[in-house]
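Workshop exercise sheet. Pairs work together: one partner reads the sequence aloud, the other fills in the structure field after running the prediction. Swap roles for the next sheet.
Pair: D.N. / O.F.
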Amino acid sequence: MGKNNDYQALSKEFFSKVQGDPKLQELLQNYAQERIQHHPETFHSHAFGEGNYSSEQIKEAHKNVTIDDHHFESMVDHFVQALNVHGYSDEDKKKALEMLKGYKDMVLSEQL
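Structure field:
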């Protein structure tokens, strides 16, 4: 894994990127920060095969979230960029990207 497995630093980097993305501002304004604070840790655990949430739990968690394809892609891309800043290998970043994109249909399924 990366040179720096500090979730707090990774989370700070991730949220800095997300909050600086004007296309995600509307999404962020509609949800309490406490509700999304766990995302970096959840992304990390699922990206590296340690996730504890089932497909049904992921669908349920996103059921009432107005998220579209762009939001999903942006969040994943910002997470991978944060991994890059913290020294994760290209192999780890590729694995994370592939794993997280595998959740796309689950996250967006309730939006159809």
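Discussion prompt: The chain is about 65% helix and 0% strand. What would you look at next?
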